[in-house]
Amino acid sequence: MTQRALEERIDEWVLGLASEAEAQALEALCERDAEVAARVERVRARFAALDETAEPLSIPADFWDRIEASLEGAPEEMTQSAPLEPAPPASAEVIELAPLRRAATRWRAVALSGVAAALLMVAVLGATLMTPTQPAVVAVLLDAQGQPVAVIDGRKDNTTLVTLLEAANVPGGQVMQVWTKPRDDGPPVSLGLLDPGASRTLSGENLPPPHPDQLYEITFEPSGGSPTNLPTGPIYGKGFAKSPVY
């Protein structure tokens, strides 16, 4: 097996294009090899921008009827069971992550293909990935080649989580500076500096809450930050914010 072959298999798995047998094989490989598991997480982060392209769709009216019809043809031993006992509340300790990851991968592919049942993925993953402070907007920053390089989570309290998706090649003597444009008719505002290769939460002062279509970008600036308090260096990545769907 070549290195390139493994990368292609991981890409197909993350995009939901792998067979069930292939998905199980890669999942088992991740459990044995921490380096492969880390590579899969990097690929998931790289393809996360594709989720932003999925249009919210309604579940078809006959969706549950089709599920019931498929169960009618199941073997009898699968449909008969003892009376159900009330289930205890779920906790983080008892969640089986592997099936959730398989489901997330499959539903992501469904969303990208435009199938209406993708809305169910949002409900399932939203219940497990909710955090105490939800972002008001999310922006995927793309480089000049259109590749995602960072994700912005803008929150109503004007804290901004900047997640770098790969290590940046920062020119010598320069730093990475994060900018936003809270007002369409106003100048860009600096949110702060980033250490090379490090994600960080930044806090803005005297700024309005972030809103959809707000511009975010990261530039390379002289050590200590832009001398003019405006972007002066090459743009590492930029993008416009969107409201997340919960």
From TrEMBL:
Source organism superkingdom: Bacteria
Keyword Transmembrane: yes
Transmembrane spans: 109-130
Keywords: Membrane, Transmembrane, Transmembrane helix
GO CC terms, sorted: plasma membrane
Ranges for domain Anti-sigma K factor RskA C-terminal: 115-235
Record protein name field: Anti-sigma K factor RskA C-terminal domain-containing protein
UniProt lineage: Bacteria, Pseudomonadati, Pseudomonadota, Alphaproteobacteria, Rhodobacterales
